[in-house]
Amino acid sequence: MQEDIKELVNKGEMLPLMEEFYTIQGEGFHKGTAAYFVRIGGCDVGCHWCDVKESWNATLHPPTHTNKIVDNAASYSNTVVVTGGEPLTWDMGPLTKQFKEKGMQVHIETSGAYKLSGTWDWICLSPKKIKLPQPEIYEVAHELKVIIFNKDDFRFAEEQAAKVNKDCILYLQPEWSNRDKMIPLMVDYVMKNPAWKVSLQTHKYLNIP
């Protein structure tokens, strides 16, 4: 990467853009609503069941000026979801500033493994055991989404729920490849622990991105 481009990426004025697309939000609180998704490359959390492992290596994705990303999103929707990879690997300040200048609703889906940057209307915190969230994000997360791959993930979910703010909505979501095994356990768990809600990847059932 050229030094001048590398400097712009480090400042958050360019970002490794993996993909961008207009679709229906499939998960969590805003499921069923239209939104423009911006997937930023780069992640070292390394979940073995990740369904976008091609996002991990940031060098595979072209550094793109944030104003171009913002213009593309604004031409489709008033709501944008920034995801990854792990978007907080990078400084999200310049990107979200431009989104807000256009009057957009700006959401993020993050593991919280890196310092929170940017201005957000909705923060979906999806913590991972491998690299735990930074402490400050628990206070501002709007929803906690814990992926359930095995029985120990219920323990981890409660551990994480004890750290979030009182208004944070709690979701359990089955890991897609293990959903048939885990959904019955999740249903039973939520019925016994009604502070939690079930989240499903409805976009996969709908066969959309």
Automatic annotation (TrEMBL):
Which residues take part in binding substrate? 24-26, 39, 83, 209
- Top enzyme category: lyase
A GO molecular function assigned to this protein is: carbon-nitrogen lyase activity
EC number of this enzyme: 4.3.99.3
- In this chain, [4Fe-4S] cluster is annotated as bound at 43, 47, 50
Q: Which InterPro entries match?
A: 7-CO-7-deazaguanine_synth-like, Aldolase_TIM, rSAM, rSAM_sf
Reaction catalysis annotation: 6-carboxy-5,6,7,8-tetrahydropterin + H(+) = 7-carboxy-7-carbaguanine + NH4(+)
Q: Which UniProt keywords apply?
A: 4Fe-4S, Iron, Iron-sulfur, Lyase, Magnesium, Metal-binding, Queuosine biosynthesis, S-adenosyl-L-methionine
Detail which positions bind S-adenosyl-L-methionine: 49-51, 85, 126-128
Q: What is the purpose of this protein?
A: Catalyzes the complex heterocyclic radical-mediated conversion of 6-carboxy-5,6,7,8-tetrahydropterin (CPH4) to 7-carboxy-7-deazaguanine (CDG), a step common to the biosynthetic pathways of all 7-deazapurine-containing compounds.
The protein here is known as 7-carboxy-7-deazaguanine synthase
The species this protein belongs to is Ulvibacter litoralis
Q: Species lineage, top-down?
A: Bacteria, Pseudomonadati, Bacteroidota, Flavobacteriia, Flavobacteriales
Give the gene symbol. queE
